[in-house]
Amino acid sequence: MSLKTNHIENRRPVGGDYFRLGYDRICNKTLESHLKKFNYNDYYILKSSGHQRLVTYEDMLTFKYSGYIFFKKSIYDIDKIMIWIEYFKSMGGVQYLDKSTPPFNPKKIKIVE
Q: Would you say the pTM of this structure is higher than 0.70?
């Protein structure tokens, strides 16, 4: 394990509906300790910082980026999540994706004055 994977924090229960694992140099928990709490095959894994996108489990193990968000496959529709990510990008993006997106298409929102 690298130094970076020795400092992984979470703010939501690992193994829940969705959760995020992120690098935090103050935290002393290891990535390995979090991995024991869930089955990675049950989750979509997305890079949560900068330009969000799907990543593989092997990519996440290197912890190249500052954080990853996990969405339970049985609950979340990855196509709807990707629609929201594209929507965020069209508006300038978001720095961190750290919670689930609404289940509807953002392009169908109408603002009425």
A: yes
